[in-house]
From TrEMBL:
InterPro entries referenced in this protein's UniProt entry, alphabetically: 6-hairpin_glycosidase_sf, GH-type_carb-bd, GH92_a_mannosidase_put, GH92_N, Glyco_hydro_92, PNGase
Residues annotated as domain Glycosyl hydrolase family 92 N-terminal: 55-292
TM regions (residue ranges): 12-32
Gene3D superfamilies: 2.70.98.10, alpha-1,2-mannosidase, alpha-1,2-mannosidases domains, GH92 mannosidase domain
Species lineage: Eukaryota, Fungi, Dikarya, Ascomycota, Saccharomycotina
Protein's UniProt name: Alpha-1,2-mannosidase
Length: 785
């Protein structure tokens, strides 16, 4: 099998191109020698080690994907990039847009979120014209921005070119001024991202201070608002310039005067700051800027002045290689698949942000592990967190520790969170599933008693009321709104918004509790939560029908008296699909599949395996209509569910179809928001050919897009996938070996692949739609064992 793969590779010209790149790219010291040649690979095949140059940082960066394209480290607090005003297309929530004008280079951004933009604070803007406080100062590009991992560049028509590099909690901004222009830098303390088309969720400037010298400045800025309706929060900053300014000017509103100190507040207009004038003789100004949520001193001490621009770029790239890229080795006969792999891998490591030592809220100790920017767990729990639990168990652990610490210090785990505040829960308390996923995969260094206490609180305690004009009925800040209904009726009645999707999610969340309880030896809790995890069946109406479909039975809103509510009900529609509707961002027909813990029961309810498969067929244009939204999370798992009726070849075909039709290259590329990397994680699993069922140890098997892949696990073992015979027609599994043994199930569990010995999957692919899986279907957990 393997021999023929490598023989055929011999003739492919792209391979020689890669080998050429391999030998000619003069770069950072990658640890080539670390990789011992594998028995599965013949000497003619070459692994690709060129990830840094293959990542397209602009992938999904348009206003659909909202991916942050600027300079950052994996999960870095600093995300240094451009903030653009783009009246034509609107802004990406990451600050970036391909057109428009640049109004600031700021230190913090989110990546890939929906909702509304957050941060865009602590900005500089180099310029060469007269300073005019009455307009928003801005730069026009002379060409498209360029960027690669850890580096971003903007060339302008205004005689200044910009390069950006990011450290963990500081960044370096490098300006190259044309000969003879007047070199100036604006530090606009009030600068921040706004939600022009959603003013109710826009951030607002509250107040700030800046104090400067000729060669630097420090201060703070306070903002409020955003998607989580944040209360005022403060960020401190510290900036240094490589050359002293010859003049410093302060401005507030429209008033400009010499001076080094400026105070601003929203009451007195929201534009204030300092202008540093370096004169006409200076060609290069380099600025180190540090930030901190704790103090101005910490913002200064977060800067590493030893590091110059180039060494910072290389250090950041080294960290990306070490933590992310070097763990993978990928071979594909299609070079675009390798690009796609590394680009998506990059996008799956941007948020949440590691903010250990940077939580200013009461009770936090500097060494307590802390992450922010969960935006949102509703998006990420399904496959992004499970990806982290494979690629970096240390991250996976720190994320669960952070969630636990947020519960311990602040009272509740978040679902959405930024600017150090919980805010906006779309469905359930899905941090429960993140925790269970880590638990069943033996993620180390978590205090599981405490983590489980956080989960229990979500499951048992109604969160305090928090007014939300979009859903005034029950809290959307944290925990599970409308919990009393769940406890009393066993479903959420239509007295509450999102009653159908909340019912489905609370069931899955309770399943997560049952798994942790089981592992902790809490057998009563195990039984109790497993029973509650079946409560989604309470909203299954066996008589519900959809126009044009000959099968019956769907989930449906239900009143407290037990009757099903037919008012406005159509299983193929979620109305506005928003905060005030019965279902949030997913139709009843889509959300009906959202019981990955008990698909066996679902198959029983729909009547037969054939109907179950037909129902999936009907959701996608491949066999039916475009009903499921592949660009949104509720349907992430659905294409793989044919495995439960042992028709794995149909999962393979549908995943191929979606990858081909909905995921592209370049700025547009993603079919929806990246959602903090959730979308990219879906692509990564699809390319590898497995997909996790979050909160369980199960992976459903599809078929790889890569010819060969190795993942170096943190425990020193290797996980390896090979696909013999792969071509555009040969996508179907003909046979499979796992760890050298013939495998007859279309699923596999975590420890078999990622345990102490690693694991291997050797696929033989072909063009026939073979039912090769003679073993039992993937497990369902809806009963006590
Ligand atoms: C960015 O998105 C807008 C709106 O969807 C689209 O019209 C525009 O062509 C996109 N730009 C690029 C460079 O793809
Ligand atoms: C950008 O600056 C120009 C002056 O250079 C000004 O006319 C224009 O209004 C500014 N654009 C924005 C979006 O603020
Ligand atoms: C400073 O930023 C604020 C808020 O983003 C903006 O309204 C103002 O125009 C900016 N001032 C200048 C001089 O660019
Ligand atoms: C863009 O700016 C950089 C840095 O000043 C410079 O090296 C590069 O040549 C510029 N590119 C173009 C096309 O002018
Ligand atoms: C430059 O940075 C150092 C420490 O990082 C700080 O103490 C100093 O005040 C800064 N310089 C100016 C002029 O602000
Ligand atoms: C997160 O940040 C803290 C503080 O800087 C650091 O000690 C820790 O190693 C970081 N975590 C990872 C996984 O890099
Ligand atoms: C709303 O709740 C009340 C009890 O609090 C119940 O009597 C009523 O039937 C509920 N309405 C619906 C639509 O379920």
């Amino acid at each position: 099998m393997v021999r023929s793969l490598s023989r055929s590779l011999w003739f492919w010209p792209w391979l020689w191109f890669c080998i050429w790149i391999f030998y000619t790219t003069p770069t950072v010291s990658w640890p080539w020698t670390k990789f011992v040649p594998l028995p599965l690979i013949q000497q003619n095949t070459q692994w690709n080690h060129d990830a840094i140059n293959r990542v397209d940082v602009f992938y999904g960066a348009n206003c659909t994907g909202n991916v942050f394209p600027g300079a950052t480290r994996p999960f870095g607090m600093v995300k240094l990039g451009v903030d653009v005003i783009n009246h034509q297309w609107g802004n990406s929530y990451s600050g970036y847009a391909p057109g428009g004008v640049i109004t600031g280079l700021s230190m913090m951004h989110e990546s890939g979120t929906g909702g509304a933009p957050q941060y865009g604070v602590v900005a500089q803007l180099p310029f060469t014209s007269e300073f005019n406080p009455e307009i928003e100062m801005n730069l026009t590009r002379s060409q498209s921005d360029t960027g690669k991992v850890g580096y971003y560049a903007v060339n302008t028509t205004e005689g200044v070119d910009i390069e950006l590099a990011a450290g963990e909690r500081f960044g370096i901004l490098k300006y190259n001024f044309e000969k003879g222009v007047d070199a100036k830098v604006l530090v606009n303390v009030s600068h921040h991202l706004t939600a022009q088309e959603r003013p109710w969720w826009t951030q607002r400037f509250v107040k700030g201070i800046i104090e400067g010298t000729e060669s630097g400045y420090g201060g703070y800025v306070t903002l409020k608002g955003g998607w989580g309706n944040q209360d005022p929060w403060t960020l401190y900053f510290c900036g240094n310039f490589s050359v002293p300014a010859i003049q410093v000017t302060r401005y507030k509103g429209n008033a400009v005067q010499p001076g080094y100190y400026s105070v601003g507040s929203s009451r007195r207009g929201d534009s204030f700051g300092l202008v540093f004038d370096f004169g006409g003789e200076v060609s290069e100004v380099v600025s180190h800027v540090g930030i901190s949520f704790i103090s101005r001193e910490q913002a200064c001490s977060n800067i590493n002045h030893e590091q110059d621009f180039n060494s910072l770029v290389l250090e950041t790239q080294r960290i990306w290689n070490e933590e992310v890229f070097d763990k993978f080795e990928v071979v594909s006969s299609d070079p675009r698949v390798v690009d796609q792999f590394y680009t998506n891998l990059y996008g799956a490591h941007l948020i949440p942000s590691n903010r250990t030592g940077e939580n200013p809220n009461p009770g936090w100790k500097p060494d307590q592990v802390y992450y922010d920017d969960f935006f949102t767990i509703w998006d990420t729990f399904r496959c992004l967190n499970p990806l982290h639990n494979i690629v970096s168990r240390k991250r996976g652990s720190e994320i669960v520790q952070a969630l636990t610490n947020i519960y311990l210090n602040e009272g509740w785990t978040p679902d959405g969170r930024s600017a150090n505040q919980n805010g906006r829960t779309q469905g359930g308390s899905n941090s429960d599933i993140v925790m269970a996923d880590a638990f069943v995969k033996h993620i180390p260094d978590v205090d599981w008693e405490q983590a489980y206490a956080a989960m229990k609180q979500n499951a048992e305690v109604q969160p305090p009321y928090w007014y939300d004009s979009f859903a005034p009925d029950a809290s959307t800040k944290q925990g599970r709104g409308a919990l009393p209904d769940w406890l009393q009726y066993g479903y959420i009645t239509r007295n509450y918004t999102r009653s159908v999707s909340r019912t489905m999610e609370y069931a899955y969340d309770d399943f997560a509790l049952s798994q942790v309880a089981k592992g902790l030896g809490l057998s009563d809790d195990h039984a109790k939560y497993l029973r509650r995890s079946s409560q989604w069946q309470n909203i299954w109406n066996k008589d519900a029908q959809a126009d044009g479909y000959d099968y019956k039975g769907f989930i449906q809103p239900r009143d407290a008296d037990g009757s099903f509510n037919y008012e406005d009900y159509d299983p193929m529609s979620c109305g506005g699909c928003y905060w005030g509707n019965d279902e949030y961002e997913g139709k009843p027909v889509e959300y009906g599949f959202a019981v990955p813990h008990d698909i066996a029961k679902l198959i029983q309810l729909v009547g037969s395996s054939e109907t179950f498969a037909k129902r999936i067929d009907d959701l996608y244009p491949l066999h039916g209509k475009k009903i499921a939204d592949v660009g949104n999370e509720p349907s992430f798992l659905t294409p793989f569910l044919y495995n439960f009726v042992n028709e794995q070849w149909k999962s393979v075909e549908l995943v191929r179809y979606i990858m081909q039709h909905d995921f592209h290259f370049g700025v547009k590329s993603l079919p929806g928001n990246s959602d903090g990397g959730a979308m990219q994680a879906w692509v990564i699993f699809s390319l590898i050919g497995i997909y996790p069922i979050a909160g369980t140890t199960t992976y459903l098997i599809a078929s790889p897009f890569v010819n060969h892949l190795k993942l170096h696990l943190e425990n020193g073992a290797v996980f390896e996938v090979s696909a013999s015979g792969l071509s555009s027609d040969n996508i179907y599994v003909q046979s499979l070996k796992i760890n050298g043994e013939k495998w007859n199930k279309n699923w596999v569990d975590h420890d078999t692949l990622f345990g102490p010995n690693g694991g291997s999957m050797e696929f033989v692919l072909g063009s026939s739609q073979v039912v090769w899986e003679t073993g039992p279907p993937p497990p369902s957990f809806g009963h006590l064992d």
